[in-house]
Amino acid sequence: MTEQPTTQSASDDQPKPKQHNAVRSLRPRTVAGLVVTALAAAAVAGAVATLPSLPGIATAEAPGTTSDRFYLLPDLAKDSFTAGDIEAAREYAQELLAIAPGFRDNWNYGNAIHDANMVLGRIALCEGRVDDAKGHLLAAGNSPGSPQMDTFGPNMSLAKDLLERGERLVVLEYFELCRRFWEMHNGRLDRWSQLVVIGVVPDFGANSVY
Fold first, then answer.
1. Where is this region: Disordered (predicted)?
2. Taking the complete model, does pTM exceed 0.90, yes or no?
C-alpha cells in the first residue's frame, strides 16, 4: 500500500494549435522570456534568428526552422501544462523529444531531455498512469545535464507530484541520477533525500519553477 507523505512547507513551492509553426498567445512575461532565449541561442550559432510573431512584439515573419523550435519548445511545453492546456503541452513535449536527437552536441540538449520527460510525466499522472510517470522521471534524471542544470539543478515538479502520491523510492533514485550532473547542489540533494526517507515532501523552492 502506498504511504501518504506529509508536507514540509506551506509555501510549496488556448486552444490546441493547428500548426506547429504558430506560437499561441502566452502571458507577456512568458513571451518576453521566450524571445530572449531564442535570441541568445541564435547568437551562439553566429546569426540572429528570425522569431515567430508574438502578441505585442514586432518581429519579422517566422521561418519556423527546427533550430528555432528546439529552443522554444521546453518553455512552451511547461507553460502550456501550467496553463492547463494538456494537449498542447503533450504535443510540444513529444515534438521536443522527436527533434532532440539532432541536437546532441547542443548546450540545450540536456534541458530538452529533462523538461520534455518532466512534462510528459506530469501529464501521465493527471491521467492516472503512475508507472508511465515514474518512467519519465527516471528518463529526465538520465539527462546529461546542461549549463543551467549543472549549476542550479533541475525542475523538481514531477518529483514533487510523485512524492505527494507516496512514490518515494523512484524519487530517491531520481535524486541519485541528478548527482551525476548537478555537482553544485550544495547539499540540497542530501537534505531532500533525508526528508523523503521519513515521508516528508521537501520544499523545493526555486527548483519547482525553473
1. 1-25
2. no
